[in-house]
Amino acid sequence: MTPVIAVPDASEIRAAAHHAKSWPFVEARRILERIKGAVPPSGAVLFETGYGPSGLPHIGTFGEVVRTTMVRNAFAALSDMPTRLIAFSDDMDGLRKVPDNIPNPERLAPYLGQPLTRVPDPFGEYESFGHHNNARLRGFLDQFGFDYEFVSATDCYTSGRFDGALRQVLRHYDAILAVILPTLGPERRATYSPFLPVSARTGAVLQVPVLRRDEQAGTIVYEDEDGRAVETEVTGGRCKLQWKADWAMRWFALGVDYEMAGKDLIDSVRLSSRICRILGGSPPVNLIYELFLDRNGEKISKSRGNGLAVEDWLAYAPPESLSLFMYQRPQSAKRLHFDVIPRAVDEYLDHLEGFGHQDPAKRLDNPVWHIHGGQPPATEETLSFNVLLNLASVCHAEAADVLWRFVSRYRPGVSPASSPRLDRLVRHAVAYYHDVVKPAQVYRRPTAEERDALADLADTLGGLPDGSDAETIQTAVYEVGKRHGCFADLKSWFRALYQILLGQDEGPRMGSFFAVYGLAESIALIRSVIAGGDRADGAA
User: Fold this and answer.
1) pLDDT exceeds 60 at position 305
2) Is the CB of residue 43 less than 8 Å from the CB of residue 410?
C-alpha cells in the first residue's frame, strides 16, 4: 500500500479550514452557515448528485460527483457532523426516444413514454432499461471508489417515501402554478400541471391537463389520451412530477443540503428553489458550474460527440489528473480535449511534490488535498509527463520498455517495480504518443539560419561535462538561442526546436528532455536534422 504524507491532527486542520481559500472550503462554510451549525433533522448533512438514466454515465457525471465529494470532504474538515452523499437516479422518467447505440432498438419503440424502469432491457441483463443504466452508474462510481448511497426515483415514488411531499405539492398546487406558468408559452400554459399521471391503461407517463383535484383525498382527475376523465391518487407511484417541481419536491422530501448544477440549469435552480420554499422547505446550497467546451470553444454535446469520454482520458493519464481538471475553476468554462491531458498530469505531479513542503494551512488549499480526501500519497521518483511523451515521440516508442531503457540510465536504480507511479506514466505516455501525437506529427525543415543555430547547439552540448544535469543543459540551450538573431525571442527559439526535432508546436523543457534522452543521442539527433535526414523530411 502506498504510504501517505503525514498530516496535522484534526484540531489543527479544523482551525485552518475556517480560513482556507480553496473553493471546496468556501462551499463547505456556506453549508455550515445554512444549517446554522446544527445537525439537520435527518441526522446528517445531505449532499446530492442527480443522474438521468436514459443514457450511460459520462465525464460530466464524474465531474459532478468528484466535485461534490471534494466539498463533502472539506465540510468534514470543518465539522464532525455526519454527512451522506446520495446519487439520485431519475429513473421514473418516461422514455423520450429510442437510443441509437443499443441492440435491437426496434424492440423499445412500443415503450416510448413508459417509465425507464418499465422499459425492457435491450441487453437482456436486468429487469428494465432503467435498472441496466442504474447498474452502469453504480459500476462507474464504484470504479473511482466514491462513497455514496444510490437512490432510485422509482423506489421513492412507489414505496411511499415521497407520499407526504406529493400531498404537499397538491396542497400548494396553485402557488406552484404561479411560479411555473409565467415561464411557459401560451400553448404549454393551457395544459401544464406539476403532476404527470402514470396511465393505468398504458403504463405511460402522461403530460395531460388536470381537470380537478381533491386535496383531502389526495387525488386528481386528468384527461386521458382518449378523452376520458380519469381519477387517480397522486401517491404510491401513480403520478410523478414535472422536472422543476420534482427537483424541489426531492429537496424537500429528502432534506438535501447541497447540490451542484450546470450553468444550463440556472433557471431550474431558481424556480425549484422557490417551489421548495412554497412546500415549507429550505432549498440546498447550490454551486452553479460552467460547462465544458471543445477545442473550438463550442459547448460539448453528447449527440455531436465533440468531447472526451472518461475512458478516453483514463486511457492516457491517471484518474488523479482528471480529478485535478475537475477541481480547477469549476465556475469558469474550460476546453476539454486531448491536448489538455499532458498539462493536467504534470500540474498534478507538481502539486503533489509541493504538498510535502507546505505548512498545514497552505496544504488545505493545495488541490491534492481535495483530490485525495486530505491524505495525498507520498511522492515517488518520477519524471514529467511531457518529457516522457516527447521521449516516446523521438524514440517512436511502441512499448514501455523502450522508454524505460532511457529512464533507468538517467535515474539508476529506478525501475517499474520500485516506481509504479512512474511506470504507469510511462505506459500512458506510450499510448498517448501512439494514438494522439503520432498521427498529427509534422516535422519541418530548418532554415539556413536555423541550421547554424542547431549546429551551435550541437557543439555547445558536446562541450558540456558528462553527467550535466537538466538545469545546466537548459541554461546552455538558452545561451545558444540568445546568440542567434533569427529568433525574435527565446519563445520562438524553443518553438523552432519543438517543430524541427519533435514535430509539434509545444514541448517540454529541452534541458530535461536532453538529459533523459542522453547528450550523445541528442547531439546525434540534431546533427541528423542538420544533414537533412528523414526527420527533417517529415517522416516519422
Assistant:
1) no
2) no
At 79-117, the pLDDT tens digits run 999 999 999 999 999 998 888 778 888 888 899 999 999
CA atoms of 183 and 180, how far apart (whole Å): 6
Please report the pLDDT score of residue 144 as a whole number.
Answer: 92
C-alpha pair distances (Å), 434 with each of 107, 393, 404, 441, 442: 40, 8, 16, 11, 14
User: 223 forms bridges with which residues in the sheet?
Assistant: 229
Per-residue H/E/C for 29-91 = HHHHHHCCCCCCCCCCEEEEEEECCCCCCCHHHHHHHHHHHHHHHHHHHHCCCCEEEEEEECC
- The packing angle between helices 163-171 and 173-180, to 10°, is 70
Pairing status of strand 292-293 against strand 334-335: parallel
Q: Which of 21, 127, 84, 83 is nearest to 369 (CA)?
A: 21
Cα-based torsion angle of the residue sequence 97, 101, 107, 113 in order, rounded to the nearest 10 degrees: -20
413: region left, alpha or beta (phi > 0 left; psi from -120 to 50 alpha):
left
The gap between the terminal CA atoms of the chain, to the nearest Å, is 41
Q: Counting runs of H as helices and runs of E as strands, what totals does the chain give?
A: 24, 12
Amino acid at 426: V
Task: Give buried/exposed letters for 529-538 (b at 16+ CB in 10 A, else e).
Answer: bbeeeebbee
Q: What is the DSSP string of 293-308?
A: E-TTSPBP-TTTT-S-
Q: Is the Cβ–Cβ distance between 193 and 210 less than 8 Å?
A: yes
Evaluate whether 274 touches 179 at the Cβ level (below 8 Å).
yes
* pLDDT reading at 302 higher than 70: no
* The three three-digit cell numbers of residue 439, written as one number: 498521427
SS3 489: coil
Q: Give residue-wise pLDDT tens across range 7-29.
A: 556 777 888 888 899 999 999 99
Number of Cβ atoms within 10 Å of the Cβ of 69: 24
- The pLDDT, as a whole number, for residue 342 is 94
d(CA 471, CA 474): 5
Please tell me the pTM assigned to this model. 0.90
For residues 56 and 100, the answer to whether their CB atoms sit within 8 Å is no
Question: What's the grid cell of residue 423?
Answer: 511506470
Radius of gyration of the chain measured on its C-alpha atoms: 29
Q: Which three cell numbers stand for residue 9?
A: 491532527
What is the pLDDT, as a whole number, of residue 102? Answer: 84
> Which tens digits make up the pLDDT trace of 365-391?
999 999 999 999 988 878 899 999 999
Strands 219-223 and 229-233: antiparallel
Cα–Cα distance for residue pair 295/308, rounded to 1 Å: 10
- Please provide the size of the chain in residues: 540
Q: Do 210 and 195 form a contact (C-beta atoms < 8 A)?
A: yes
Count Cα neighbours of 393 within 13 Å in the Cβ-side half-sphere.
Answer: 28
